[in-house]
Amino acid sequence: MKTTARGRIATQVLLWAYAGVAAGPLLLVVLGSLRPNQDLLRDPLGLPQRPTLANYERAWQSASLSTYLWNSVLITAAAVALCTTVSLMAAYPLARWHFRGRAMLAAYFLSGLMLPIKLGILPIFYMFQSMSLIDSRLGLILLYAASGIPFSVFVLMAFLRGLPRDVEEAARIDGADELRLFRSVITPLARPAIATVAVFQIAPAWNDFFFPLVLLRSTDKYTIPVGLSRFFGEHAADRGALYAGLVLAVLPLVVVFVIASRQIVAGLTAGIGR
Amino acid sequence: MSRRVCSAVSSSGSGLVAKRGAGSSGRVGWTAFFCGPAALLYTVFVVVPLVTALWYSIFSWRGTTQGPLSGLDNYATVLTAYPYQDQLLRAFGHNGVFFVGTMLVQNTVGLALALLLHRAPLGRRLFQTLYSLPYLISPLVVGYLWSMLLSPSFGPVNAVLEAVGLDALARPWLGDPGTALPVVVLVNAWQWVGGPMLIFGAALAAVPAELEESARIDGASAWKTFWTVRFPLILPTVGVVTLLTFIGTFNVFDLVFALGGSSGGPGQAMDVLGLLFYRLAFQGGVNAIGLSSALAMLMFVFVFGISLLVDRMLRRREVNP
Fold this sequence. Notes:
A: globular, B: mainly alpha, 2 strands
């Protein structure tokens, strides 16, 4: 693997050039969010001469991004918790027990990996209407939890299958029933996989735009994506606040991924390393 | 329906676990207890809506009133009648351009970056992280972000062009039907290029170094070494990336909505199947339910069918190289 010095320099130049392409636009947004509107209109490119958080204040309050953020947090957290719980419960017998129909039930769950749930929007809309779930945060929670089940069952099943055969034996001999065994033996052992599954469910629920666009009516229930869409329609001239809004919409997810990156890696390697 | 599934499981499950000592009749109830909640949620909110959409598509509708069974009439209308046929063909064409453009830009750049990083182990992690940053952002936010950067008079992109003396190139990128769709391709590639870069990177790392060495000793140029040694070996990966790109580009919605609104931008230059389906479902007139459900099924069958076909071809290649 001998490369000439000139080749090495050219490689570095190209790599840094693309780093600029990838990160530059993000940097522009962050810088723009710190500049007052007059500056942004006069010179769309410059650095913040007198950095201000006023844009964030306007986005947070008058554009009610605080409400949207709270709704997104609530819906995402509830959906992820519900999805992870029911998926772990289902994955346990599917991975550890022998019963006829098990393969079929597993296939039934996993077939959802290929189903584009968005194409069922009209039936979902009318079903929600009959269940009074239109314009309801609960409706979105149930929808996101359900759509996350195929992936979660898939990952958890693979993980539980890899646990040694005898982990349940001791507890069974002690006379623990299935629920105790599930809660005090299986769940603690599955923690890395649970973390993986939970983290991977966060982004789809947090980022979803289509379902709240169709299913929510009142703006005080809007999640971040639909709220942002409304914000961009109504405050199109307030460029500083728009930049701040973009940062606010992305920041929570970035924080989660930074905090959880160790969990993600732990979960993935725990799945592979058996 | 979920109860049927679980009872089918539990009724046939009795006595199979008896050898492990736990009461087998109790196990039937436990199976239902553990599988029930997930089966119920998944069935009600995923399976039933999709089956119902299929059901909707074979009836004619007056508003929300279900009319007589109409067989494949809705499908025929969407595929052949004015104005649906024109809109469908245009949107389909745009998805096609979007797919081909993304293949050319995103995956070529991804492969190029993977090759560069393969040669330069120093700082590889840093670059991989930098290139994957846009991955963290939702397509909707990416769309709004670029709509601001590309804004005609106050956008930094045109400001950069003017600053380097390329004023002639500055234009309303998203307002011009000629540039709107190419811009969507570029923005999409910008967001996802980290994916092919990482996948190709892993594939390249698996190519035995001796193969490249011997090719080089034989006097082959770097360019020739790539095409004759590395590329054939990473071909299955190219297939996987193609498949993922295909599914992603034919399901696109959020990004084009943010860049051009629900009508698909100027002169509908970036109208795609996802937007067409959305408009047909919620602004589609008397038979909206029937027609949009038929379109949903057509989209599903097309994407799913092609994916299965490509997947099978890839598998065959793997078994029989």
